[in-house]
Amino acid sequence: MPTIALNNGVEIPQLGFGVYQVPPEETADVVTQAFEVGYRHIDTAEMYRNEKGVGEAIARSGIDRGEIFVTSKLNNGFHRRDDALRAFDRTLADLGTDYLDLFLIHWPLPGIDVDYVETWKALEEIYAGGRCTAVGVSNFNAHHLNRLFDEADVVPAVNQIEVHPYLAQDELRAFDAEHGIVTEAWSPIAQGKVLGDPAITAIAERLGRTPAQVVLRWHVQRGDVVFPKSMSRARMAENFALFDFELGTDDMATLTGLDRGERTGPDPETFNYLPR
Ligand code: NAD
User: Fold this and answer.
1) Residue whose CB lies within 8 A of the most ligand 1 atoms, among 20, 238, 239, for a mutation test
2) Beta-carbon neighbour count of residue 147 at 10 Å?
C-alpha cells in the first residue's frame, strides 16, 4: 500500500475505507470485513454516528493500533473552542483509542456565528497536546485556507474535498499542492454515479478492470488520497485491487476531461447544516 507524506512527515496510506452512511449497528462488522480485505485506513466522522462501531472493529481486530490510520472529523455543532476540545475527547472515547491519526474540521460553515479560524485554533491546541498526529480541514476552498495561512500557525495537513471525474477540482487541488496540503477525494466514485459513463466503461472493458477500479486508479495516479465506501465485501476487495495496473496518459486525460463541475454533495459556500 503506497503512503503519502503529510507536511509534518506523518505517512498516510493512500487508499482507505470510508464509513459515511454505514449504519451504526452494522459498522463494527463492516469495518471488520474491511480489515480482513486489507484496509488499514478508516475515514469516519462524529456526524456519521458510527465511531463506536469503528472502535469496536479496531479492538476486535487484534491489529496493532500503530498499523491503522484513523481519521475523524469535528461535527458542525462544535465549532466553539471549548466545544471542539470536548468533542475531540468524546471522539477518542468512542473510538476507544488514546490518539487519533488525523482530525479534521468537517465543514467551514460560512453562515454560523462562530468563525472557523477559532475552530482551527482549537485543532492547533489539540495537535500541540500530542493526542493527534495531524490536523486538517474538509470542504475548505482557497479563500478559507488563505485566512488560516494569515491568522493561524499550523498549515492543515490535508483538505478533504469532493472529487471525482464529474468534479475534477483541478484548481483547488493545485492550490492545496502549492501549499503542501494533501488533497483527499471524498465520494471518489460520486456514490456510483460516474460508473455507467460510456467513456469510463470503455476504458474498463479494454483493460479488463471494473469502472470503479478505473476511477479509483485515476485518483491514485493524480496523487490524491481516497477511501471508497461499500457494505459489500466483494466491492471492498474490488476497490482495494488498484496497484497491479496503470492508466496511460490518454486514459487519464479522458477521465479528467469528463469534468462538468457537478457536485453530488453540498456546496461548502452555502452549506450551514447544524445537527440538532
Ligand atoms: P463513494 O464515492 O465512495 O461511493 C460509495 C457508494 O458507491 C456505495 O454506497 C456503493 O453503493 C457504491 N459502490 C462502492 N463501490 C462500488 C463498486 N466497486 N462498484 C459499484 N458500486 C460501488 O461515496 P461516499 O461514501 O460518499 O464517499 C466515500 C467516503 O468519503 C465516505 O464514506 C466518507 O468517509 C467520505 N466523505 C466525506 C465527506 C466530507 O464532507 N468530508 C462527504 C462525503 C463522503
Assistant:
1) 20
2) 15
Is there a contact between 31 and 23 (Cβ–Cβ < 8 Å)? no
- Taking the centre of ligand 1 as the mean of its atom positions, its distance from the CA of residue 234, in whole angstroms, is 15
Cell representation of residue 141: 476552498
CA of 149 to the centre of ligand 1 (A): 30
Residue 19 in contact with ligand 1 by CB distance below 6 A:
yes
pTM higher than 0.85 for the full model?
yes
What is the residue-level pLDDT of the chain in tens, covering all 276 positions? 999 999 999 999 999 999 999 999 999 999 999 999 999 999 999 999 999 999 999 999 999 999 999 999 999 999 999 999 999 999 999 999 999 999 999 999 998 999 999 999 999 999 999 999 999 999 999 999 999 999 999 999 999 999 999 999 999 999 999 999 999 999 999 999 999 999 999 999 999 999 999 999 999 999 999 999 999 999 999 999 999 999 999 999 999 999 999 999 999 999 999 987
From the list 29, 193, 144, 147, the residue with the least C-alpha distance to 159 is 144
What residues are paired with 158 via a beta bridge? 182
| Residue 48 annotated among the catalytic residues of the structure | yes
